[in-house]
């Protein structure tokens, strides 16, 4: 398994007459670890919102050979697309394990999950290991450090068999060590999934991106490898201001 590819064509999003996404094309190949960068307001989050069904958009979004644009959020999620938000959305009062159980437990009674003590299901055990949270499994999520909450949120996607992860600034507010650990986590996840990361942190991108798309004013300014994008004078212009 190497994840599933995402093909976006002529994506357009307008808010009250303001065009936030203005004809974006993206070809994200299965197994890619793509960074989506660009200055504030470039349209990065809106592209992800459109792909996941949170905002209305025109154009085409194909995932796993199917057109998904226009479907409701829960049906898009069911195709195997998962996302995280800048502020992690975990249940603070529940333990790490319970959070993962609930994410994994579609169809099981919440009470049964909370009562269960020992038998950690295989996908949950794997997610604990992948995210490095095994030794924290019985801690309430509310006491986790900022970075650990982000990893838990990623873990909650992993147990749902997500084949494309869309992560919105996963290292914002993280320490240097947390960033490095997150990069390694993305590499591990990317071994058998497709990952798209919205990011501001250029050092983080340099270390971990396999490919990069630069958005500016709702359009794709350029894309390529980290080296190609960095060498493009237009990228420096939009980042530094003319
Ligand atoms: P980025 O993620 O690159 O910082 P966004 O996708 O958040 O950019 O925003 C792109 C543009 O769309 C910005 O000008 C922003 O103000 C505008 N925008 C985003 N969401 C809304 C909304 N719900 N209503 C009106 N304008 C919005």
From TrEMBL:
Keywords: ATP-binding, Nucleotide-binding, Transport. GO terms for cellular component: plasma membrane. InterPro entries: AAA+_ATPase, ABC_AA/LPS_Transport, ABC_transporter-like_ATP-bd, ABC_transptr_urea_ATP-bd_UrtD, BCA_ABC_TP_C, P-loop_NTPase. One of its GO terms (molecular function) is ATP binding. Residues 6-242 form the ABC transporter domain. This is Urea ABC transporter ATP-binding protein UrtD. It comes from Streptomyces genisteinicus.
